[in-house]
Amino acid sequence: MRILGISAFYHDSAAALVEDGEIIAAAQEERFSRKKHDARFPHNAVDYCLRQAGTSLGQLDQVAFYDKPFLKFERLVETYLALAPRGFQSFRMAMPLWVREKLFQKDLLRKELKGFEERKLLFTEHHLSHAASAFYPSPYNEALVLTMDGVGEWTTTSAAIGRGNKLEMIKEIHFPHSLGLLYSGFTYYTGFKVNSGEYKLMGLAPYGTPKYTQKILDHLVDLKPDGSFRLSQDYFDYCTGLTMTNAEFDQLFGSPARKPGELLTQFHMDIAASIQDVLERIVLRLTSALVKETGIRNLCLAGGVALNCVANGKVQRSGVCDGLWIQPAAGDAGGALGAALAAYYGFHDQPRKSVCKDSMKGSYLGPEFAQEEIEHRLNAVGAKFRTVDDNCLVRLCAEALEQQKALGWFQGRMEFGPRALGARSILGDARSPQMQSVLNLKVKFRESFRPFAPSVLREDVAEYFELDSDSPYMLIVADVVERRRKAMTAEEQSLFGIDKLNVPRSDIPAVTHVDYSARIQTVHKETNPRYHALISEFKRRTGCPVIVNTSFNVRGEPIVGTPEDAFRCFMGTGIETLAVGNCFLRKEDQDESLKLDYSSGFELD
Ligand SMILES: [Fe+2]
Predict the structure, then answer these.
(1) Which of 49, 397, 528, 531 is geometrically suited to a Cys-Cys bond with 17, CB 3.0 to 4.6 A?
(2) Does the model's pTM come out above 0.85?
(3) How far apart are CA 395 and CA 393, in angstroms?
(4) Other C-beta atoms within 10 Å of 445: how many?
């Protein structure tokens, strides 16, 4: 039985293909179309999934869409009616879009899936799609499944119990009470882009003190003992206006919203610390109440809020649950996979084999390129490269890292989900105190108040971090172990913002935040042997099993999808060496005329 899952028309459209319960392929449309967070129908991703499974649309047993279009429309109308006339402006603005795309989503889908038998088209509910994406690929036969995001149809937070092939919803919190929208409200207030700047807000939090936690809990969020919550609509404008927060919100905190590009002050850092603190309290309270109520001690997470890896780390360390598994494509892209899995197990009632490890295949579910094809494609764009064997490749790359060079690493199947996990990554030496600013300024063309993430050999993780479990998807934050930390002098302590980040905080400064935390990816031999071999070789040379791993793109660009994309990014940035399959490229060997002015081509995020 082959089922194609699709998510589209909101943000981050994607496709996934499940065959007899096995996840065969999954990819986001942005990687093909080169438009970040592309929300259009995922033609390219669908084509790829069908190709990978060796099938065609007509041969599929089912196409499952991750969302129910009409429920959404109902929400819009009801919200409008409840809040009229305040809501007229947004209703008028939103209406044409909804009429064009949302209301007639079914027609739109039918058109896009020309020739596909309509009776085989299935619509799953948004949060069920998220929940299915969190539970079915997890290593648990029984688990609590918590989904938290901005908004699906009506539901913003849901709790379910997964058992075998069954997924039973037990609780829901409805719009407009939403953790995702609460966090996005503060994202907007601190001058970052909603739906993509949430990560920046989280990265800013360690610079601040959670001074406003009580204010938020007193005025904005009514948090109940069981972790359920209500947001006071007096301070938000997302139901009615075109902004997230309103004048009352500004008054409460004594300052207007920061405009993008305006100076970041200690105030914004304190606000970031406070909302992060509130989010963590809510997530912890929700999970502990659910565990208490059900007695189930394995927890699966999905939905945009599950990308808050600082909160995930707190849940893990709190001991509230025994097992924690988070869907790597926790946002709406993962809904495509969830829809396919919900159709297979829920709708078709197919048995779920007894599981002991997760079935995401390391999230390496995207396209790959054969060596011959890589050479052909690189030759076609004028690249100069050497083709080397596996051992030589790993040696040359580890050597480049040791020489403090930035290395583009394009290997095997592309990752599904927002993080680069060592298939489409830019790598560097984590021990270097300069690496963080070099990569930011010369390669990614940005200044970031968040350090890069470390990739560490799974077997060595506890040597460097206060973590001794798997974190293959870079979704858990933990601290660098005490003996590897470096204290700051009083003078360094008084530095502000990025200047503070540039003070080495540990033996691996490029990946250590100002509060000693790190967003960890454990690297496993079984799921990514070549990446594991590279870090092992780096360790053999230097004694250090940790390297810097950042996504292979520049600011505003989707992660590279093809060898040509990789070569372009290499030629347009300060990346010094590049490994695409078994091809090894050095910047100094390339034709000068192929250098690009690259970053200006992308809209800043
Ligand atoms: Fe969602």
Answers:
(1) 49
(2) yes
(3) 5
(4) 19
**Residues 44/29, Cβ–Cβ less than 8 Å:** yes
Q: How many Cβ atoms are within 10 Å of 173's Cβ, its own excluded?
A: 19
The tokens for 282 are: 């809510």
Ligand 1 centroid vs 417 CA: distance in angstroms? 13
Listed in sequence order, the residues at least 6 apart from 384 whose beta carbon sits closer than 8 Å to its beta carbon are 585, 589, 590, 591
User: What tokens were used for 321?
Assistant: 């649950």
How far does the centroid of ligand 1 lie from the alpha carbon of residue 144, in Å?
18
Q: What kind and span of H or E run contains 392?
A: helix 390-402
SS3 267: helix
What single letter denotes the amino acid at residue 290? L
pLDDT in tens, 571-583: 999 999 999 999 9
Helix (H, G, I), strand (E, B) or coil at 378: helix
Which structure tokens are listed for 172? 């829901």
Distance 182 CA to ligand 1 centre (A): 14
Give tens-digit pLDDT for 199-233: 899 999 999 999 999 999 999 999 999 999 999 98
Report the candidate in 94, 91, 114, 95 with the shortest Cα–Cα distance to residue 41.
114
CA atoms within 13 A on the CB side of 29: 24
Task: Give the pair of three-digit tokens for residue 263.
Answer: 């100076």
CB distance 215 to 164 below 8 Å: no
**Cα 151 to ligand 1 centroid, rounded to whole Å:** 6
Question: What's the token pair of residue 390?
Answer: 């596996």
CA dist 46 to 55, 150, 353, Å? 11, 26, 27
Instruction: Give the pLDDT confidence of 287-315 residue by residue, as tens digits.
Output: 999 999 999 999 999 999 999 999 999 99
In this prediction, residues 568-595 reach a mean pLDDT of: 96
| Gap from CA of 332 to ligand 1 centroid (Å) | 5
Centre of ligand 1 from the C-alpha of residue 330, in Å: 8
By annotation, the residues acting in catalysis are 11
How far apart CA 553 and CA 271 sit, in angstroms, is 30
- The torsion angles phi and psi of 423, rounded to 5 degrees, stand at -115, -40
In this structure, are strands 298-302 and 323-326 parallel, antiparallel, or unpaired? Answer: parallel
